[in-house]
Amino acid sequence: MSDKSKLLLIYTGGTIGMAHDKRGTLVPFDFHTQMDSFLVHDLDIEVGVHAFSDPIDSSDVNPEDWKAIGQVIVDNYQKYDGFIVLHGTDTMSYSASALSFMLEGLNKPVIFTGSQLPIGGARSDARENLMSSLEIAASKVEGRPRVTEVCVYFSGMLLRGNRSRKVQSVHFDAFESENYPPLAQAGVTIDFNQRLLAPYQTNAQLIFRHRLDTHVTILKLFPGIRKEVVDCVLNTPSIRGVVVETYGSGNAPTYDWFIQSLEAANNRGVLLYNVSQCSGGRVMLGKYESSLYLKEIGMISGGDITTEAAITKMMYLLGEVDDLKMVRYLLTTPIRGEMA
Ligand code: ASP
Question: What is the sign of the dihedral through the CA atoms of 278, 281, 283 and 284?
Fold first, then answer.
């Protein structure tokens, strides 16, 4: 049997495949037809291409697109050793987080990448991101895929997808993962941090968890936030879960009206998920008085989860798990390495 890896490149859109139109604005173009000229053929990899017929700027991505990406992976899972998803950088961390939850039992690499400059540009970062992603996805240990999870590869770093977040819109190093070290660093050689990678699971079965509940939202706190704004969010008809972006280690105002609004929402069955606005560190409910009451009214600690992972995890759990007690428990528990 040939050891040559077979990878599927899934093109969804993003800057990597864009070009300037007559107005000088970047718009997606038919990257598919030109793909071949961009691939370097000295890698011992067979590459298939699946291009979405209507490539998008990732600002337009929504859960239907996540289902479509997941479906392509599921349909081609047996035929390929790994998958590269070419995606815009703006919402890449949301998509990578969502897919990490949706692809239960994943045992092959799914690597999201893109670029800050279109692939046709002279100084583009696209080629390196694409070629290194291919090499990483093709990497094997004892004939098995080395990477068996959803990742983001960008500017020399392989990050766990549901730990990543976009932090730069100008420089090439657009992503970081403050609470989990890089899974690999690519310089002259690609150095893997093998002990940090999700282990290969013998006999794992891929299950596509595609039911997502979008009756969720994010409430970011700031000094001066008004009662009517908080109430408007928490009383949104049919809302089931709110990621509350708190300060520091999970702290929030202690005004009576604020506490009462949260408590009333919790009592109505709305899940309140506490995620810190800090990109590093974690929520520790009860460390300060300004978070002790949050615990008492039933708020759920997100630990060191990112907002991107928190909101997509809520969509996934509310869509796939009926028992709300179980949803609450799973929100505090790592299910795909998204929290410590
Ligand atoms: N607006 C683009 C997108 O996310 C930005 C990029 O790809 O870097 O699709």
Answer: negative
Last residue of a domain, one of 168, 190, 208: 208
At 234, which CATH number? 3.40.50.40
If asked whether residues 140 and 233 sit together in one domain, one would say no
Higher-confidence position of 120 and 304: 304
Structure tokens at 310: 């928190």
Q: Ligand 1 centroid to 90 CA: how many Å?
A: 5
Ligand 1 binding pocket (C-beta < 6 A) is 13-15, 57-59, 88-90, 114, 116
- For 35-88, what is each residue's pLDDT tens digit? 666 665 667 899 999 999 999 999 999 999 999 999 999 999 999 999 999 999
Residue 337, in any domain of the structure: no
**What is the span of the domain harbouring residue 72?**
5-208
Q: Which residues pair with 245 in a beta bridge?
A: 220, 275
The answer on 202 and 310 residing in a single domain is: no
Cβ 101 vs Cβ 140: under 8 Å: no
**Distance separating alpha carbons of residues 223 and 212, to the nearest angstrom:** 32
Say whether both 258 and 323 belong to one domain.
yes
Ligand 1 centroid to 100 CA: how many Å? 20
Tokens matching residue 107: 């045992």
pTM listed for this prediction: 0.96
Q: Determine the Cα–Cα distance for residues 312 and 18; give it in Å rounded to an integer.
A: 27
How many angstroms is it from 172 CA to the middle of ligand 1?
A: 13
Catalytic residues: 15
- Ligand 1 pocket check: which of 60, 61, 89 to mutate, most ligand atoms within 8 Å of Cβ? 89
Give φ, ψ of 208 to 5 degrees: -90, 105
DSSP 3-state of 314: helix
